[in-house]
Amino acid sequence: MNIKSIPNLVCADESGSIVEEQHLLMLCRQGRGFALPRPDDLIPLPLSSDLFLLPGRKALGLDPETGKIQAVEALAVAGFASPGHTLSGTAAYLPEPDAPRLPLYAYGAVGYKHGRFWISAQLVDKDQRQTFTGISQSEITRKAHELLTRYPRNRLVRHLAGCALNSCCPAARNLALGRFEAPLPTARSCNSRCIGCISFQPPDSGFKSTQHRISFTPRAEEIVQVMEIHCSRAKKPILSFGQGCEGEPLTRSDLICEAVSMVRTRISQATININTNASMPDMVSRLAGCGINSVRVSLNSADPDLYHAYYRPQNYRFEDVSSFIFEAKGNGLFVSLNLLFFPGVTDTESQLDLLGELIEKSRINYIQMRNLNLDPDIYLQLVTGMDLGPQTGLKNFMKRIKKQCPWVEFGYFNPYLYPG
Ligand code: SF4
Predict the structure, then answer these.
(1) Which atom of ligand 1 lies at the shortest distance from residue 298's CA?
(2) How many Å apart are CA 206 and CA 195, to the nearest integer?
(3) Which of 62, 141, 149, 412 has its Cα between 20 and 30 A from that of 130?
(4) Over the stretch 216-225, which tens digit does the pLDDT of each residue have?
């Protein structure tokens, strides 16, 4: 490896000023270890990405002269890559004993060289649905208010317009703008207890949920109206149940089937998707029968122990998730994985073997390479004592799966499925 191509370490002082440490190289955390980033794993920090200061954590760099890892008396800095990018390395830092838990984001390794920031990540999807460059907030505000004026009695329109106006939710903004994928939240409860749940966190979890869970159950007519609004305006409409602001949509399967059945024939061009924890395989045939044509299954691992440790399922097991996937394929649905990727865990030989086997046997169509948004030390605690085996790296991970399952495609978002 030509270490001359490796960016320098960046860190931050208490006031938040980010500085370059010119005598130390950036490092990546790879699972439990640290390593120099692979040069071909580094990209310029993409537009719309964020840089975070990591409280109570000293930055770690490598001294190219001695080859030794060195902690600096400054805060570590991490990168939150913009949508469409998957992290291949986590930020390297030394936590103080009383370091506070990090909020529910993904913390990418970053460095500085040639006058710019670099991040250990890869672009996996060029789709622009979560990019709003060139679209003014006033345009989004005007469009959201238009929906409120035209559909004053529709509570779901009110909820989603509020999300577009107040929490800048990209899915709600796209509904207001009449483009790409529109959200259809329905569920207030969930039968998982994901450690990194963004819509519900128990008071003693040490995390704040980043989304407010929907506070009512929409009626079928309200859902149908939102579906028709979006399909009357979006070129390739995608309609998705299972959003960040709700629980598990399968707990509202009856309502979803009622709504979709009411409108499916009038919106035949739409891709109707359900983002789900796939806990109820016995619901698949009904969902397929009413007109759902795509499912996205949330998964951190095909290893039941690691799955159970993260999702903490209440009344189902990993085997139900696997059955759901096979049922969905058996009913002709397009099946995506919402793979919660964590460098140094997901891309290890043991995890790759299990995941490859599941994809190969079930013929899953698509893998959305998402970043696991969780304090890295907490996730690594879940794999304590597990023999993960060597790490393959993000690129090799994807190459290996593609070699084993040539039909599978990778991306970041739910694809539009042209009507058959
Ligand atoms: S499945 Fe979704 S709503 Fe349920 S606990 Fe997990 S993240 Fe939260």
Answers:
(1) 1
(2) 10
(3) 149
(4) 999 999 999 9
Among 71, 97, 123, residue at a domain's last position: 123
DSSP string, 153-190: T-HHHHHHHHHHHHS--HHHHHHHHT-SEEE----S--
Q: Number of structural domains, the chain?
A: 2
Q: How far away, in angstroms, is 312 Cα from ligand 1 center?
A: 10
pTM: 0.96
Regarding whether 147 and 117 lie in a shared domain, the answer is: no
**Whose Cα sits closest to atom 3 in ligand 1?**
247
Ligand 1 is surrounded, with C-beta below 6 A, by 190, 192-194, 197, 199-200, 247-248, 277
| Residue 242 belongs to domain spanning | 137-411
Angstrom distance (rounded) from CA 34 to CA 90: 9
What Cα–Cα distance (Å) separates residue 337 from each residue in 158, 164, 274, 366?
30, 26, 12, 6
The distance between the two most distant Cα atoms of the chain, rounded to a whole number of Å, is: 69
- Does residue 118 sit in the same domain as residue 146? no
The residue to mutate among 211, 277, 340, having the most atoms of ligand 1 within 8 angstroms of its beta carbon, is 277
| Alpha-carbon gap, residue 107 to 93, rounded angstroms | 11
State whether 302 and 176 are in the same domain: yes
Residue 416, in any domain of the structure: no
Q: Which among 191, 193, 195, 199 is the best mutation to test ligand 1's pocket, defined by most ligand atoms within 8 Å of the CB?
A: 199
Please check whether residue 419 lies inside any domain of the structure. Answer: no
Q: Separation of 35 CA from ligand 1 center, angstroms?
A: 33
Are 41 and 161 found together in one domain? Answer: no
Helix axis angle, 155-166 to 170-177, nearest 10°: 110
- CATH label of the domain that carries residue 389: 3.20.20.70
Q: Do 118 and 193 lie in a common domain?
A: no
